[in-house]
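Predict the structure of Stage II sporulation protein M.
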Amino acid sequence: MIAFRIVLLLLALSVIVASFSMVLVEERISYSKHLQTISGVKPWLYWIVNFVHDMIFFTIPSLAFIMIGIGLFFVGTVFTMVVMLLENLMQQDDTLVTAYVVCGIVFMILPQYNLGMAMYRMNFVYMLYGQGTTYLGGQTLL
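Done. Here is the predicted structure for Stage II sporulation protein M.
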């Protein structure tokens, strides 16, 4: 059940982040040169790089929204599941400790991963609290 909640939260966060791409794509469609003016990049270099990037990803605003949303959702879900899997496998094989630590540090750059792991850890603590309360016969732990 917690995995479903994590996936739904990651989906919501991915859609929110992807929604900001709509403004960027609309700015490109309106031929705004504001970014070029304030960036200090040579005009020919800016336009070549921008054109190539936009033709690959952002030809249609809704496509940009979908691509960014799906990409962030996929990356957040996969990275969260990888670390959760490594955490469980690490209990059986001590050689996976280094991989777990490295992945945990490297993946922290992504907000989707951080949200997924935070929800996973909060649910784990809540389950431990519930089991402790049950074990103590309904008494509060605090």
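DSSP finds seven helices and no strands in the chain.
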